[in-house]
Specification:
mainly alpha; 331 residues; 63% helix; 0% strand
Length: 331
């Protein structure tokens, strides 16, 4: 197994966090609330339907262009809800049937296979720190450190790139899982095609474009890629506590990304529901200060990624903070 760096240096992230989190705090952070989860679901459904209706009604680009951009983030938000389902973070007690139903529902707006996402994501957690076994890094990370190639991920080309990546990952899956994945893909793509045909035939090409095509094929790739840039691209390979990018909490990003901007904290304690991750980050600032893990905003991430053309999964800090120095929050 080819490793990107030596995982034996990891003394145990949870053990390192116990100095900063009491047992009571950890238990409280892990408390799941179906009411809070479904409040997020209601928010995303209202946004999805409401934005679609407004784009259907209004022809002015001053109205539908910003709404379409927002809709791309809303579609991404359903994948974040699927992520919560994968980690069994919906109900206080397991409800496998309803969890499966919700997972299939959450996958529909993006037409991603719920079953493949589950296997892909759990493999990512199990193999974080490897070159060839973490599917995100092995198959989806750009292999060319070129600005034009990186930019493709923010275009409809993302669907081709992801299809190739998911197909490569699926070669390791058992036949039964591959069949389930294929069925889900056919059903989801079929439903999107039916919806597109209905819109185009009843309201015309322009309405289909602004209600369905532009949010899915243009806005969603941008939202997806921006979100992913804040996960594992700007890291310190020498310290497992810094194998994810630290993104400081901000109400706008918390809302538009449905708390998925707390990817570092999620990897620390995967059983913490998304809506409790801001609280977890707040409790961990002393830990970040100790290890010298500086936060990065999305504007800065984009600057390093495109302007400075930094390679993924490397230390993007030109002047890293030595361990033990305070975090220069907000810089």
């Amino acid at each position: 197994m080819d490793k990107s760096y030596d995982r034996t240096i990891n003394p145990g992230i949870q053990e390192r966090l116990r100095e900063f989190l009491s047992r009571e705090e950890i238990l409280e952070l892990h408390r799941r609330s179906a009411a809070r989860h479904f409040a997020l679901v209601a928010q995303q459904v209202v946004l999805l339907v409401g934005i679609g209706y407004l784009c259907y009604r209004f022809r002015s680009p001053w109205v539908w262009i910003p709404l379409d951009i927002l809709q791309g983030f809303v579609i991404l938000g359903f994948i974040i809800l699927l992520h919560e389902q994968v980690h069994n973070l919906i109900f206080a007690r397991r409800r496998p049937f309803w969890e499966r139903v919700m997972g299939l529902f959450y996958a529909l707006p993006s037409a991603i296979s719920a079953s493949q996402f589950k296997r892909w994501h759990l493999d990512h957690h199990a193999e974080l720190g490897t070159l060839d076994d973490d599917p995100k890094r092995a198959y989806l990370t750009p292999k060319r450190v070129a600005r034009w190639y990186k930019a493709l991920y923010m275009t409809p080309a993302l669907f081709v790139i992801y299809s190739i990546a998911s197909a490569k990952a699926a070669r390791r899956y058992p036949p039964s899982l591959r069949r389930t994945i294929n069925i889900e893909k056919v059903v989801y793509i079929g439903l999107h095609l039916v919806f597109a045909a209905w819109l185009w035939s009843t309201a015309g090409f322009a309405v289909w474009a602004r209600v369905h095509a532009i949010p899915v094929f243009l806005a969603f790739p941008f939202a997806f890629t921006l979100n992913r840039l804040g996960q594992h691209y700007a890291i310190d390979p020498t310290d497992p506590a810094k194998w994810s990018t630290l993104v400081k909490s901000h109400w706008f990003w918390n809302w538009i990304f449905v708390y998925s901007n707390f990817h570092l904290e999620h990897h620390y304690l995967i059983g913490v529901p998304a809506y409790r991750l801001p609280a977890l980050q707040g409790k961990l600032w002393p830990f970040y200060e100790r290890i010298g893990h500086r936060p990065m905003g999305f504007g800065r991430i984009l600057y390093y990624w495109f302007v400075k053309n930094k390679p993924p999964h490397t230390n993007w800090e030109e002047d890293p903070v030595p361990r033990g120095n305070p975090v220069e929050a907000g810089r």
